[in-house]
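TICKET: design request
STATUS: open
ATTACHED STRUCTURE:
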């Protein structure tokens, strides 16, 4: 009772602050409040959004532990309006996002109710009225989920195609039209500096590991040129730009585990050219992304000599992903772009990294 009273008082105090922070069409404050004793900060049950906004590899164990502690099979959450104002299920239905922005003066959404009948889930919407199952996954960019983005990159009509900058070798900015939506991508030509093969291999390995660092990337020809199309996030800023302009990042996703993922990934793929310009953040969440892998996969079977033992750290969920890599899984995921020698080198570097971690 004392804790409930404390939380109620804290929420009442914060209500005015949160209302002033919110845009009429944006559910996320630019600077979310910190954690406090009442549990109303970004790590508390009233505000925690990691399982919605952050990398599933890092968040699913948190969700599973919470469900196990509650003896529950799923959790239904509000307080985080969905981007498209439709009810969505994540993690195979273990998490349901039910907030469709029905406070219309803030979120321009509509009311919805979740109906559960002997395990069957349906959503009843009003204004307009419709009933349908929850949508799968969360839109990642341009109102599209990861699978939908890959389809749009592969099948979208080219509405515009222009050189990224003078002298860029085979790299172009492309605007695509697909299903009534417009999205931006970078085209990298195959067989040249910044070759498409490395970007495609990096995306394939990243997806195999479930690190979700590399933007969606597909093999595609542009006219007579073979290459790759990689998604451009409209809201992303580079680490260099973030530092220069002192851009604030939201607190929903912890940065350190994401940086650890990136360090492990670069060691695994022997990326020798990671710079602040090719580390991207999406400030609202914030989620780290990595681009420009033109110098990856050409390294030796050893870890780079610059490796600092004290800096080696890999989040526990990522260790399982690294340990699960096999020659067969790499060949299936990236064998189209990596040679047998490349794949053997990836596995050798993985083994060296795990040995280094075990020896700490």
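STATUS: resolved
RESOLUTION: sequence designed for all positions
ATTACHED SEQUENCE:
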């Amino acid at each position: 009772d004392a804790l409930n009273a404390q939380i109620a008082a804290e929420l009442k105090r914060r209500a005015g602050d949160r209302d002033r922070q919110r845009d009429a069409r944006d559910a996320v404050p630019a600077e979310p409040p910190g954690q406090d004793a009442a549990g109303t900060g970004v790590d508390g049950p009233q505000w925690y959004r990691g399982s919605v906004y952050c990398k599933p590899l890092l968040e699913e164990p948190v969700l599973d532990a919470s469900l196990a502690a509650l003896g529950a099979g799923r959790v239904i959450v509000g307080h985080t309006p969905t981007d498209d104002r439709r009810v969505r299920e994540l993690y195979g239905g273990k998490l349901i996002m039910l907030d469709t922005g029905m406070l219309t003066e803030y979120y321009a959404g509509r009311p919805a109710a979740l109906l559960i009948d002997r395990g069957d889930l349906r959503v009843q919407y009003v204004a307009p009225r419709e009933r349908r199952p929850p949508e799968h996954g969360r839109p990642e960019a341009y109102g599209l989920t990861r699978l939908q983005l890959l389809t749009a990159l592969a099948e979208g009509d080219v509405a515009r195609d222009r050189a990224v900058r003078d002298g860029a070798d085979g790299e172009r900015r492309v605007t695509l039209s697909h299903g009534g939506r417009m999205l931006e991508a970078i085209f990298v030509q195959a067989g040249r500096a910044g070759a498409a093969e490395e970007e495609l291999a990096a995306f394939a390995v990243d997806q195999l590991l479930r690190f979700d660092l590399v933007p969606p990337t597909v093999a595609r020809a542009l006219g007579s040129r073979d290459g790759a199309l990689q998604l451009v996030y409209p809201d992303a800023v580079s680490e260099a730009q973030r530092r220069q302009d002192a851009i604030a990042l939201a607190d929903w996703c912890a940065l350190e585990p994401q940086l650890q993922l990136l360090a492990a990934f670069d060691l695994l793929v022997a990326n020798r050219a990671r710079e602040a310009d090719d580390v991207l953040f999406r400030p609202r969440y914030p989620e780290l992304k990595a681009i420009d892998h033109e110098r990856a996969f050409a390294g030796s079977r050893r870890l780079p000599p610059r490796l600092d033992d004290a800096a080696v750290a890999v989040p526990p969920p990522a260790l399982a992903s690294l340990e699960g890599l096999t020659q067969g899984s790499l060949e299936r995921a990236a064998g189209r772009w990596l040679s047998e020698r490349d794949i053997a080198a990836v596995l050798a570097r993985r083994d060296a990294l795990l040995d280094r971690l075990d020896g700490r």
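CLOSING REMARK: The first strand starts at residue 75 and ends at 77. Residues 20-35 have pLDDT under 50 and may be disordered.
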